[in-house]
Amino acid sequence: MMEVMTTRAESAAATRRALLDAAAELLDLGGPEAVTLREVGARAGVTRGAPYRHFTGKDSLLTAVAAESWERIGDQVHALRTDPSLSASEKLRGALRALIDVGRNQPHLYQVLFRRRANLPGQLGDGMDRIRRQLCGPEGDPAVADRAAERFQDEFLDIVAALAGERNARHYGALLLTSAHGIAGMELSGHLDTDKWHTTADELVDTLVRMVTDVGETT
Amino acid sequence: MMEVMTTRAESAAATRRALLDAAAELLDLGGPEAVTLREVGARAGVTRGAPYRHFTGKDSLLTAVAAESWERIGDQVHALRTDPSLSASEKLRGALRALIDVGRNQPHLYQVLFRRRANLPGQLGDGMDRIRRQLCGPEGDPAVADRAAERFQDEFLDIVAALAGERNARHYGALLLTSAHGIAGMELSGHLDTDKWHTTADELVDTLVRMVTDVGETT
DNA sequence: TCATACAGTTGACAGCGTCATCTGAACCGG
DNA sequence: CCGGTTCAGATGACGCTGTCAACTGTATGA
């Protein structure tokens, strides 16, 4: 049965978890538009104002969901990289497919993962307001999601380095990563017509892996 | 000075144009969230209900904006393809950069261009409602945007075929297109850290062009 | 000339994110 | 054990949104 909640910290942590789970579920079902703070609260057993005790707002909540997902993907790629039963090519193919599979199985989540970072452009005027706000809660901070996404990229980079050599790893790593992202994105948006192009996302991944494998051998 | 509007059709057409222009401008400024039917109407000199005479709703309006943009990009690539002063490689590089430049200069528009197509997944239940609705107005119909996007892809495919041969054109064309889309997307979202990867989007494009040029030569 | 079609206006509604305010119970120093 | 404090959560309110039904006035076409 359910553990009895005694301390306030435990109860708050449980609410936070429930909010994140509810948000992730609603995101899967109907995209960011369907993630209503009212509905999230209801599914977590609280009311519409409660999420503001754990996140600075809706954006912050979605960012936290993205951060957890990045961590999960990072773990997955880490497991691939350190699996001694896999060849270097298999590791690379697995990492690329891991990303594309998220696009396939959780398209709405995938789009949130690659949301535009808030403080990218030269907007510094009201940027300070946003930044200060999001510093209120350490979670939902874009920096948290950024760190998690970068860990994934680091793991990925190591896999590429083992295959194509340290020299080419960064350039070709970026090429592979962006290409996989593009494959996932166009498959997701429906702009990759497999009939028109006589090819599939999986075949494109194979070609990418083969190309980098060749680079590694001839270097 | 301004031409006097007499006929009702002219007036309506002018309003439609103004609505599209206002929507495109607001999209550039603040993304889809900033495209308010009230503000669009205000900038077009009408009120909030007027857009419903020309589009079935906000989604339909944004789809029409995307369709016009796809047509513009298609024209641009067509001009590249038929320019006798350019080499095949230059045509390919230009086409890829044309797409990436949209991502750079109009990031919000770019995301709308690659919006998920409505009728992709197996949702047929309420899908009929949506479809019948969007058939009311021939514009804003997703099919219009799809046709425009496909014309761009056809032009692009021809450029690749001239460089890599008919045999490889489709497979490598898809690879190039998805890769360019991924480069644009990750640069746009801020996930392509040029310091970390020791490379830039432009260098990645050059590598892609070189790879396909090699394929064309060795075939 | 007169009925009609139709672009555009207006009022209304439900739902949204967000904030200020309030409440009650867990906490903690004495 | 007790009384003040902190803080998770509830609640009311506000402005904004997309959407639709009902309405208005004018150009159209027979």
Give the CA-based shape of chain A.
elongated
pLDDT below 50 for ≥5 consecutive residues: which ranges of chain A? 120-138
Order of helices and strands of chain A: HHHHHHHHH
> Biggest sheet of chain A, open or closed, and with what strands and sense?
none
Mean pLDDT of chain A: 88
Strand content of chain A: under 5%
CATH topology category name of the largest domain in chain A? Tetracycline Repressor, domain 2
Highest CATH level, the class of the largest domain in chain A: Mainly Alpha
Computed Rg of chain A: 20 Å
CATH homology-level superfamily of the largest domain in chain A: Tetracycline Repressor, domain 2
Characterization of this structure:
Two copies of one chain form a homodimer. Chain A is mainly alpha-helical. In chain A, 72% of the residues lie in helices and 0% in strands. The radius of gyration of chain A is 20 Å and the shape is elongated. The termini of chain A are far apart. Chains A and B meet through helix 7 and helix 9 of A and helix 7 and helix 9 of B. Chain B binds a DNA duplex (30 and 30 nucleotides) through helix 1 and helix 2.
